[in-house]
């Protein structure tokens, strides 16, 4: 059924800036510190851990935004240990739960879990022991809460005896369709707050844009909720985006050899086949590499992961199925062999590098044709999901219009991140999480900060209008790379055949550098002036995309109501825009006749057609 958000008035309280929560004078402080050392073996608290614990122990609903690896688990495991009764933890993935329970049991903290796939007898046994308070923590998957009346009755019973001390929603962004790991069953979790309004709820996530946060708080029904957040900037990660060419694998080999030879890393690939190919190639080049993806049998997957953890393998070539709950501190590089599906996902995947604080590299190989490929896979619902979002929802994901739209939108943001060769990578990522960042603090640790000395802002409205005009004149039949070819004056057979349709706009942009024209065109797509439609173009199943004009936005451009300003590097070599005034195209519409365009070297642009079998 459609999801209709019920809007409640939420009072957010910024916890991070309130000194009260870092006090060492709470009634539980001594117990807290002793248990942190004795039971968990930690010497101190990490940023915000003490504050979050104090707020939830004080009985408030708390929302925690903490980067992956920041130590979110401790903020509920410690309170569970020093509170009477039981803490219920909702977590999306059985393998994550099992991993946590293993660690808890090793520390002698009694814990158990319930999942829908468990034997009935086993579940009965756990519920019995639950009512006698044998456990401090009970983990459950969201499906279990949604579907099990028995569990609900048991929770009621505990609550009546004042033994339900806290409800924890881990990976809380799964509630939101705007997030990258949407799980429909998470949306039903609002029932917990309805049934137990006085039991404090602690929601934790490493990924939340403003809209995700709002969704989570609304769906869970949190009121007067205290928010703790900290910077998502990871100063020790060095970011760069490189063009993906046919010799991408050679480039990767060379990059690792020169920068991280024999060090530990992850290469994220789009498809299972890609993982296998990349691993094979790297092995041939003398690296200790292996692949990891969703269609390997679980034993094999576990084996590969173990080999990697023990440094018997350096490089793992994986889909996004790999990485959840992985805690290896010395991952020195994360390479994206293909375009990630969202900035959140990208940030999280990169976040697996450099947990130990040492300098690590994040390199993304980008090509526009990967965008078409990913987009097609998203439309078809065949793209491998992170395990958080996977499971029974996968087929629904593909068919639901709104989710498809969100996914496409997320992907477009990622494309615009890759094509931006001006702004600080950290800034671009952090802006996405609603965080302010001064790019001076990057200190040249990203490719864009490193190469750009200064930039100029240019009004490119006239170029934008020409590009839109060109799309219209060609009756919305061309893909963006074809539009660029025409605009920059290529004379391929196809372009030649259709040249008469383009009136004077053929080659109108020949004085622009290739990157500049494409950045402007792409800007028009990401800002919704133009829309990209994926088309199956022939019986062989190859896909291509065509550009359409969004009339409802474009009229503002032509009426002078909106200008398009972009930043360009001011180094003379890369920008000819600085002295560009939108010259009327040769043989423009008003002159009525076409003068033959002067053709310089035809631009070679990658073929967009792809054979996806
Ligand atoms: P998150 O859920 O935020 O990704 P985890 O809770 O899994 O992070 O913690 C990541 C790692 O950090 C774990 O290995 C955990 O033992 C460790 N850790 C957490 N808190 C502390 C601390 N105060 N001191 C030292 N290590 C810690
Ligand atoms: Mg966690
Ligand atoms: Zn930077």
UniProtKB/TrEMBL annotation:
Residues 251-412 form the Helicase C-terminal domain. This is DNA 3'-5' helicase. Belongs to the helicase family. RecQ subfamily. The lineage of its organism: Eukaryota, Viridiplantae, Streptophyta, Embryophyta, Tracheophyta. Keywords: ATP-binding, DNA-binding, Helicase, Hydrolase, Isomerase, Nucleotide-binding, Nucleus. It is an enzyme of class 5 (isomerase). Its EC number is 5.6.2.4. Coiled coil: none annotated. It is found in: Nucleus. GO terms for molecular function: 3'-5' DNA helicase activity; ATP binding; DNA binding; four-way junction helicase activity; hydrolase activity. One of its GO terms (cellular component) is nucleus. Residues 266-308 form the Rhodanese domain.
């Amino acid at each position: 059924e459609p999801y209709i958000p019920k809007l409640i008035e939420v009072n957010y309280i910024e916890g991070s800036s309130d000194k009260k929560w870092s006090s060492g004078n709470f009634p539980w402080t001594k117990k807290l510190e002793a248990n942190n050392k004795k039971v968990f073996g930690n010497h101190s608290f990490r940023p915000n851990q003490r504050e979050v614990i104090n707020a939830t122990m004080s009985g408030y609903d708390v929302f925690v935004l903490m980067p992956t690896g920041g130590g979110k688990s401790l903020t509920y495991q410690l309170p569970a240990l020093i509170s009477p009764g039981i803490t219920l933890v909702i977590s999306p993935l059985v393998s994550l739960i099992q991993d946590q329970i293993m660690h808890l049991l090793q520390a002698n903290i009694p814990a158990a879990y319930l999942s829908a796939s468990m034997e009935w007898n086993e579940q009965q046994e756990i519920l019995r022991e639950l009512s006698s308070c044998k456990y401090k923590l009970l983990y459950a998957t969201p499906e279990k809460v949604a579907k099990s009346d028995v569990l609900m009755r048991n929770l009621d019973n505990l609550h009546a005896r004042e033994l339900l001390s806290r409800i924890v929603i881990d990976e809380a962004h799964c509630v939101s369709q705007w997030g990258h790991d949407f799980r429909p069953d998470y949306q039903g979790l609002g029932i917990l707050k309805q049934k137990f309004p006085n039991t404090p709820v602690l929601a934790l996530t490493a990924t939340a844009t403003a809209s995700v946060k709002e969704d989570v708080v609304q769906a869970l029904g949190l009121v007067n909720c205290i928010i703790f957040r900290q910077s998502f900037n990871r100063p020790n990660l060095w970011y760069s985006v490189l063009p993906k060419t046919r010799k991408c694998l050679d480039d990767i080999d060379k990059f690792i050899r020169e920068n991280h030879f024999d060090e530990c890393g992850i290469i994220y690939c789009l498809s299972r086949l890609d993982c296998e190919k990349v691993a094979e190639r790297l092995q041939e080049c003398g690296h200790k590499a292996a692949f990891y993806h969703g269609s390997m049998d679980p034993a094999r997957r576990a084996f590969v992961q173990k080999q990697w953890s023990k440094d018997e393998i350096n490089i793992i070539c994986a889909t996004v199925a790999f990485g959840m709950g992985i805690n290896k501190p010395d991952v020195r590089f994360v390479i994206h062999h293909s375009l990630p599906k969202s900035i959140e996902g990208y940030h999280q995947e990169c976040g697996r590098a450099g947990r130990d604080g040492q300098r690590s590299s994040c390199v993304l190989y980008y090509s526009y044709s990967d965008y078409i490929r990913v987009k097609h896979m998203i439309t078809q619902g065949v793209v491998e999901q992170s395990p958080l979002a996977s499971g029974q929802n996968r087929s629904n994901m593909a068919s639901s219009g709104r989710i498809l739209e969100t996914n496409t939108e997320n992907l477009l943001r990622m494309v615009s991140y890759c094509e931006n060769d001006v702004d600080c990578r950290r800034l671009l990522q952090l802006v996405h999480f609603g965080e302010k960042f001064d790019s001076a603090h990057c200190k040249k640790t990203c490719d864009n900060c490193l190469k750009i000395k200064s930039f100029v802002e240019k009004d490119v409205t006239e170029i934008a209008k020409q590009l839109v005009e060109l799309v219209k004149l060609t009756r919305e039949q061309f893909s963006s790379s074809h539009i660029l070819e025409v605009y920059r004056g290529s004379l391929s057979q196809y372009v030649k055949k259709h040249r008469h349709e383009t009136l004077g706009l053929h080659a109108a942009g020949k004085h622009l550098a290739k990157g500049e024209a494409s950045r402007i065109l792409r800007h028009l797509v990401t800002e919704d002036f133009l829309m990209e439609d994926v088309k199956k173009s022939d019986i062989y199943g190859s896909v291509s995309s065509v550009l359409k004009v969004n009339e409802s936005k474009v009229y503002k451009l032509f009426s002078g109501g909106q200008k398009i300003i972009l930043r360009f590097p001011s180094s003379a070599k890369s920008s000819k825009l600085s002295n560009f005034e939108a010259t009327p195209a040769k043989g423009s519409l008003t002159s009525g006749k076409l003068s033959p365009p002067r053709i310089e070297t035809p631009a070679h642009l990658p073929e967009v057609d792809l054979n996806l079998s």
